[in-house]
Amino acid sequence: MDNKNEVVKKEEEILAFWKEKNIFKKSLDQRNQSPVFSFYDGPPFATGLPHYGHIVPSLMKDIIPRYQTMKGNYVERRWGWDCHGLPVENIVENELGLKSKKDIEEVGIEKFNETCRGVVMKFQKEWRATIERMGRWVDMDNDYKTMDLEYMESIWWVFKELWDKGLIYESYKSMHICPRCETTLSQSEVAEGYKDIRDISVIAKFELQDEPKTYVLAWTTTPWTLPGNVALAMGEDIEYALVRSGDEKYILAKENVERLMEGKNYEIAGSVLAKDLEGKKYKPLFPWDYSEFLKNQNTENLYTIHLANFVTVEDGTGVVHIAPAFGEDDMNLGKEKNLPFIQHVGYDGRFRALGGDFSGMEVKPRGSHTKTDEKIVSFLEELDRVFLSEEYTHSYPHCWRCETPLLNYATTSWFVAVTKIKNELLKNAEEIRWIPAHVKTGRFGNWLEGARDWAISRQRFWGSVMPVWRCECSEMRAFGSVKELEKASGEKISDLHKHVVDAVVVPCGKCGKDMKRIPDVLDCWFESGSMPYAQVHYPFENKEKFEKSFPADFIAEGVDQTRAWFYYLHVIAGAIKGSVAFQNVDVNGIVLAEDGKKMSKRLKNYPAPEEIFEKYGADAMRYYLATSGAVRAEDLHFSEKEVIEVFRNVIMLTNNILRFYKTYEDTAGEFTAQPKNILDRWILANFKTLLSEMTLHLDDYDIMRAARPIEKFIQDFSTWYLRRSRARFKDGDPEGIALFGHVLREFSKAIAPFMPFLAERVYNEAGGSQESVHLEDWPETEVHSQSRESRDLLEEMETTRKIVEFGLAKRAEEGIKVRQPLRALYVTGSALRDEFIPLVKDELNVKEVDFSKGEELRISLDTNITKELEMEGDAREFIRYVNQERRKQGLTISDRVKLYVNGDFVESLRQHEKDILKTTLADSMEYKSGDEKIVINGKKGTFSIIRA
Ligand SMILES: [Zn+2]
Ligand SMILES: [Zn+2]
């Protein structure tokens, strides 16, 4: 079996061991009287499969709680599932073949919702498999679901708290809606779906009522809104020009004349002041009858020019076409100037009864979003109302779920008045520690600064409902618990989903008529933002438990959650508790394919996580991710090659160290914290430095900085400590081996949060005293002070290694093999204490090291090879041949041999016979010819090895 599979096999055995022995539970139980370290888990949807975007935060959510547990805290880790909202609804729509909201209403909300309930946990098994396999410890048996009655009841309580504080209101505003999902979206949902698209922009000609052939030019990127035009807006401070071209005259911003009239025959006929045009009337663009749309409205101001301060000269003409039904500025101006309102588009994104063949047409169909705009433009062209139309690329919002282009649309929605409490939210946010720190004032701070009121109502079906009942007489009542509703309605309530509670009526306290629930459901971020309360059914149960665990000490999620989960947790906690919801937060970046593109199942441009687990094990992936910028909000280009490097340089190297220890563990003596050997003292000091560095960074929640030094330590351990200790361990060194074992066990504790499998293996095989390393305490460490002695020791060893490194380079330069002993090494600019000198001598194979004063570190070698040195070199070379042959024959350290050898180098061997016998584990050496030919430093001969 090759090494790779051995690691994977071992991990699987350890997984089974944890499960069988309930190690996770034991690690919690033994701390259940300890201080609480509070961790909240952000709930994922179980309707998609887990991917790297979940694995990175899962890793962070494993490392910190494991560490805090080892530090002596009780860290509950409870899994949650996000069950509601558009992702689930969209799956069910596809499953049931429903194309629109009307289709859903036709099959019935009950059937629709019950189907949603059925598919929500679709991939639960796959999630469990992946999360367990990656070694994350989290309680998935005792999970919470946002669709549970208890959870939903707490949501009502949160809502009612906001309601009672006057933070919930209903308003008619310009919003973004998804015409396919037929619902409003929140600011953060809208922000998530911006994409660059090519649209058609048009400059339309608005002819002045009393000046025929004089046109005001106005620009728009949404030609479909032109039928809703009721006014034009000009800027008071903008200079306009009157331009003559042919028999027509145009009014537009002076600054834009050159650009827009390019290629046309024209002359500037004069300047125009916006003020002079204010109140002037123009002719409608479309020849249609608008009387139905304008019923009962003030039409006095229809098709009039107004002044407005939001008009600029950038991009357009310096004149803005105003359609109050489709834009915030437009709507505000409409209110200010008492303009009529033409809502010619339905909530489903289709034209209402318009002229021509436009009625019923989708204004921005998904997949062919410019189709309708093109039709509008050509219709206007036929009427000679188009000055210019061209393609225009801009960033446009799309539905984050179904990718339909959103519409800016005036409609009624319910809001949380975030702006009312913004100052307090900003103040609270100062308490939060972010990793990386820049998110605090950057992405999060900026978002919070620019926060608007939160649109929480959705005109959908599968979600927590708005617990508000309203009467015809406009009386309203919000309910904060099941009991309250039961009492008011006289009905038994066992489910709070829409299809159930919509049927519940409540008598109006004012007029006695039936109050009905307002039909909207809640934004599902309202639910995930309420998880601190709802996961424990607060305040109906677990009051004390909640108080102990609020706010969270730690949470972790991706950078995309800055404007979502992090933000909503913060808003709700600020509003109802006047507090932060979390104190420390680790933010991960996005994992991309190696080529920097999005990971795509279709393009197969990345290895699936399961594939990585299968080939290199979970620890290799964990360490790779933990040491990457991915745990500090940076994008990561996932590289399998780099996982392989970790596998080799961290996992396999540690296994080799462990194997070496196992060979000699029986010879271990008593452990002493004050060992004599310089290498022992050094590895101990080195480990203490590693530990204090890791502790420092873990206390700061900085996973990457805590993880990185581990690899260096393993390298030091293997390529210096073991390399230089091999001979003494072979010869028997009870104190050294005991220390070796001690360092391994302590090391296993330090890596336990990062590489829980490797840690378990090392701990168990190096003789850990507990059932599992994960039941251990974090090793004692002095974080801030390092003794002068150990600092000197580490520094001097560093110099020693530098001298060795230079010496080896010099040998290579001179073409002298390391096996050939040399008389002396001369070191200028540095000196070592006596106990370090043998390390240099052995490693560089020199008889003497000579130090002298000087500026910088320089070294040179005495390269004169005397007869005596040459003979020693021959002997060393012969030893290498013999040991190579021993390996070839599969001999182990318990097999003794007899040697037969003859040739031109025999004299050299005679001189060093004792040494040869010892190092090759031979009983005797006879100078007779053997079967194998060899050449030693140019001298020919033969030899044989016979098992004794
Ligand atoms: Zn949509
Ligand atoms: Zn009433």
What does this structure look like?
- With about 950 residues, this protein is an alpha/beta fold.
- It has 34 helices and 33 strands.
- The chain has a 6-stranded mixed β-sheet with strand order 10-8-9-6-5-13. A 4-stranded antiparallel β-sheet has the order 4-3-14-16. It has a 4-stranded antiparallel β-sheet with strand order 19-18-21-20.
- The longest helix has 29 residues, at about 705-730.
- The two termini are about 30 Å apart.
- One zinc ion binds near residues 178, 180, 401 and 404.
Largest sheet: 6 strands, mixed
Tell me which ligands are bound: zinc ion
Secondary structure: number of strands: 33
General shape: elongated
Structural class per helix/strand content? alpha/beta
Strand portion, in percent?
15-25%
Rg, Cα atoms, Å: 39 Å
Percent of residues in helices: 40-55%
Strand order in the largest sheet: 10-8-9-6-5-13
pLDDT average, as an integer?
Answer: 94
Q: How many H/I helical runs?
A: 34
> What ranges have pLDDT less than 50 throughout 5 or more consecutive residues?
none
Lay out the secondary structure.
Blueprint: H1 3-20, H2 23-29, H3 52-70, E1 78-81, H4 86-95, H5 101-107, H6 109-119, H7 124-133, E2 139-145, H8 149-164, E3 168-178, E4 183-184, H9 187-192, E5 194-207, E6 214-220, E7 231-234, E8 240-245, E9 248-253, H10 257-261, E10 267-272, H11 274-277, H12 291-294, E11 304-307, E12 319-322, H13 328-337, H14 371-382, E13 386-397, E14 407-416, H15 422-429, E15 433-435, H16 438-449, E16 454-455, E17 457-458, E18 468-470, E19 476-478, H17 482-489, H18 498-501, E20 506-507, E21 514-517, E22 521-522, H19 524-528, H20 531-534, H21 543-549, E23 552-558, H22 565-577, E24 582-588, E25 591-592, H23 609-616, H24 618-626, E26 636-637, H25 640-664, H26 678-699, H27 703-731, H28 734-751, H29 756-765, H30 788-814, E27 822-828, H31 837-844, E28 846-852, E29 858-861, H32 867-888, E30 897-903, H33 906-911, H34 913-919, E31 922-926, E32 932-936, E33 939-947
Parallel strand pairs: 1-2, 6-9, 7-11, 15-24, 23-24, 25-26, 27-28, 30-31
Antiparallel strand pairs: 3-4, 3-14, 5-6, 5-13, 7-12, 8-9, 8-10, 14-16, 17-22, 18-19, 18-21, 20-21, 27-29, 30-33, 32-33
Helix pairs in contact: 1-23, 1-29, 4-6, 5-6, 15-16, 15-22, 23-24, 24-25, 25-27, 26-27, 26-28, 26-30, 27-28, 28-29, 30-31
